[in-house]
Amino acid sequence: MQFGIFSVSDITTDPTTGRTPGEGERLKAVLAIAAKAEEVGLDVFALGEHHNPPFFSSSPTTTLAYVAARTERLLLSTATTLITTNDPVKIAEDYAMLQHLADGRVDLMMGRGNTGPVYPWFGQDIRNGIPLAVENYALLHRLWREDVVDWQGRFRTPLQSFTSTPRPLDGVPPFVWHGSIRSPEIAEQAAYYGDGFFHNNIFWPISHTQQMVALYRRRFEHYGHGAADRAIVGLGGQVFMRRNSQDAKREFRPYFDNAPVYGHGPSMEDFTEQTPLTVGSPQEVIDRYAAMRDHVGDYQRQLFLIDHAGLPLGTVLDQLEILGGEVVPVLRKELAVGRPAHVPDAPTHAARVAAAGGGRDATVHGAGDDVTGASPEPAGAGDPRVTR
User: Fold this and answer.
1) Half-sphere exposure at residue 176, Cβ-oriented, CA atoms within 13 angstroms
2) Strand partners, 10
3) Which residue, 190, 188, 134, is CA-closest to 347?
4) What is the Cα 6 distance to its own chain's centre?
5) In this predicted model, what pLDDT tens digit does every residue of 227-268 receive, in sequence order?
6) Pick the residue with more confidence: 384 or 2?
């Protein structure tokens, strides 16, 4: 079971001080938060992708590469990578590069994006969100697994004899989670490929999460990847903790009441009752999240949102101390009890390389010279590239 945190990279005014951090300050804060996540024993740090204010994270691979250079164990992921508006060729290249730099400590979560204007900014139509997610991922999946790809689809320029570089580390592509809140088509897509399904249920009742995960598990088994309880499931969550439950509620309430993502809707009490948001003591968080598998079965990854709504860096680091020191160790033990032996662990690069029979150098050595413009000599009938 992997535990970690994810950031949506929002820049929000602290309602208790009226202070709004700048982009640079928030970016440096996220780096400190990622380092702290490793220090307190968490497994995963995931960063979202946005292309509009009030968010700063337009280039997760740049940030994650920096984090990779300053951590040793932390698994780096995204929350999410926009499979709809990014070119799948660029995703294949960027994340394979990051995978090499981070020595395999990389996976990524695909998402369609919930910011409507981003689609036309990148030449797309939001009404094509699902078809874009389906087609672009089909291409990305091939680019990481086939050395030479011919491609023609609906949404991008055709490819002829194209090789995405660098090739995946050890010949094993980064693991992919398909993130979705409400689209059964994405659960179906995750099941079709035998990939992971991440239900970011932070705004939804557990009954909805239960339905989406059950659909993914049924379809995972339908496509022949194994029994439904072997499907790879991740959940979102959000918490705010203090030693005393009333102190936690008192401190978090102004952030809840004023943050655009929460405020002016249900009360904090109603919201916490109906969604995974838990504001209280560490034991209350343990009790709430240990019960998640009663609804979705044994699962592989739990990510928490704790860096948002204008919370100052010091408070977020305090939350990480509590999460890593008191909550996660207990949850690891409780969620291990009664877990069937055949339920797989969360995927890692090392485990996937081992399952593939060992790593290999997947480098493709081109026969031509695209630097000087000299014409390449064909290396073989019908295939201008040679794999050594």
Assistant:
1) 27
2) 55
3) 190
4) 8
5) 999 999 999 999 999 999 999 999 999 999 998 877 688 999
6) 2
Q: How many whole angstroms separate alpha carbon 99 and alpha carbon 348?
A: 12
Contact by Cβ (8 Å): 7, 46: yes
Q: What ranges make up the beta strands (E) of 116-232?
A: 149-151, 159-162, 175-180, 196-199
Q: What is the pLDDT of residues 59-112, one digit of tens each?
A: 999 999 999 999 999 999 999 999 999 999 999 999 999 999 999 999 999 999
Confidence check: pLDDT of 376 > 80: no
- Average pLDDT estimate for 371-382: 53
Query: How far apart are alpha carbons 159 and 197 in whole angstroms?
Result: 29
For 51-99, the DSSP string reads SSTTB--S-HHHHHHHHHHT-SS-EEEES-EETTTS-HHHHHHHHHHHH
Pairing of strands 278-280, 159-162: unpaired
Confidence of residue 40 (pLDDT cuts 50, 70, 90): very high
Q: Which residues contact residue 349 at a Cβ distance below 8 angstroms, ignoring those fewer than 6 apart?
A: 99, 103, 104, 105, 106, 169, 170, 172, 174, 175
Both tokens of 173, joined, read 């592509």
**With 70 as the cut, is the pLDDT of residue 175 above it?**
yes
Extract the tokens encoding 305. 């949102």
What per-residue confidence (pLDDT) applies to 238?
Answer: 96
- pLDDT of 49 > 70? The answer is yes
144, two tokens: 């990481």
* Secondary structure (DSSP) of 9-32: -B----TTT-----HHHHHHHHHH
235 forms beta bridges with 199, 302
Angle, helices 23-39 vs 60-69, to 10°: value is 40
- In angstroms, the CA 100 to CA 59 distance is 17
Q: Is the dihedral of CA 180, 183, 187, 189 positive or negative?
A: negative
Q: Are 202 and 276 in contact (CB under 8 A)?
A: yes
CA 11 to chain centre: 20
| Phi and psi at residue 199, to the nearest 5° | -100, 105
